[in-house]
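Sorry to interrupt, but I need a hand with the structure work. I would like you to pick a protein and set down its sequence and fold. Please put the record directly below this note.
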Amino acid sequence: MLAHQQAKQAVFGGGATMRLTTKGRYAVTAMLDLAINAAQDPVNLADISERQGISISYLEQLFAKLRKSDLVTSVRGPGGGYRLARPPERLFVASIIDAVDEQIDATRCAGEGTCQEGDMCLTHYLWQDLSCQIHTFLAGISLGDLVARQDIRVIADRQRQRERLRSADVVTIRS
């Protein structure tokens, strides 16, 4: 297995000791959706929910934290929704994860140093250093970097196409 595949599996769910939970993944996904779709108008959570398959109630919880951390602003009233608080080039993945109280931790003891019968294990500092490296890596990736990626643009285009087809189906049913 390649090194980047091993790191990906460790972070996103192949290892027993470390995972980036749903909260962090969904927050980054929703913010990326916002970065892609909020060119002129605010984006409402129902649209993000539809495109990304995340429940509205979960998005409301996440966006309350994102707003409190000044990563998004809300627009009330008809046509309201959310906007990024800063340009996507100035919003970093690690900041989003931190805002929703998510921690990336490769240690078995949640960083407490109680990995081995209440004491620190032999490899504690190795896993702690890995956690710091992952956080540093994510702190160097902006939403702007992600929006610019061709593979992400292809997926976003596919999602928009599905959304248009669903809207056309609703119009057809109502006619």
